[in-house]
Amino acid sequence: MEKIPVLRMGPLLLITIQIDMHDKLALQLQDDVTHRISEYGSTGVLIDISSLEIVDSFIGRMLANIAAMSRVLGADTVVVGMQPAVAITLVELGMSLPGVRTALTVEAGMELLLGAVAEDANGTDHEHRQA
Amino acid sequence: MEKIPVLRMGPLLLITIQIDMHDKLALQLQDDVTHRISEYGSTGVLIDISSLEIVDSFIGRMLANIAAMSRVLGADTVVVGMQPAVAITLVELGMSLPGVRTALTVEAGMELLLGAVAEDANGTDHEHRQA
């Protein structure tokens, strides 16, 4: 039963993490996500961590890795559902999840990702917009 | 970490089951699902079981219970992602998941549920349609 499902929802992929992560499982998840992105042409990845009461440096690094891999494949990543205690611990540990965007709920994350997709389709230049 | 998240996606709820079920967890899930339906006014429940390699009579009964509880609260339930081996075992065991609709993928399940919602909104009479 040790497998984290990667669900396709239109242009997005949804992953809910419920079980204790270990090395092999994390590698398999990275493998699954990258293959699904290239198979489905997904433009966004949603990772729900609302079941996690602890996010240690291992999980933090795994999230950052998935986000970086997805980015080079053309998909944005949003981590959703973080528990308040987890946010406190992360900052206290000095881990700010670099390169990972977050949102409070799956719905907010979907809006963020689908908004980004719509903007890209309109040819908006993100770098100029920030100037 | 023993908690199965119930994610809200518009008018639907999405539940992915990844961990070994036991009595307490099943009761908590039933409790969560029914509360979320009444809180959000959800019209459909999607249960992804693609991670499950075994569906025994306990899980079968739990799925049927959640479907029945959701129905009396006005929400349809669709079980998605069943592995072929699970389907074979279920039928061999004489468990046909009565009252539970199934679909192959989350996307197909969403279409099924949102289609049913749209039909209800149009005032279609299901019983007459079947005659």
Automatic annotation (TrEMBL), chains A, B:
STAS domain: residues covered:
1-113
One Pfam family recorded for the sequence: STAS
Q: Which Gene3D superfamilies match?
A: STAS domain
The record, for CDD domains, names:
STAS_RsbR_RsbS_like
InterPro entries (alphabetical): Bact_StressResp_Reg (IPR051932), STAS_dom (IPR002645), STAS_dom_sf (IPR036513)
Superkingdom of origin: Bacteria
Q: What is this protein called?
A: STAS domain-containing protein
Biological source species: Occallatibacter riparius
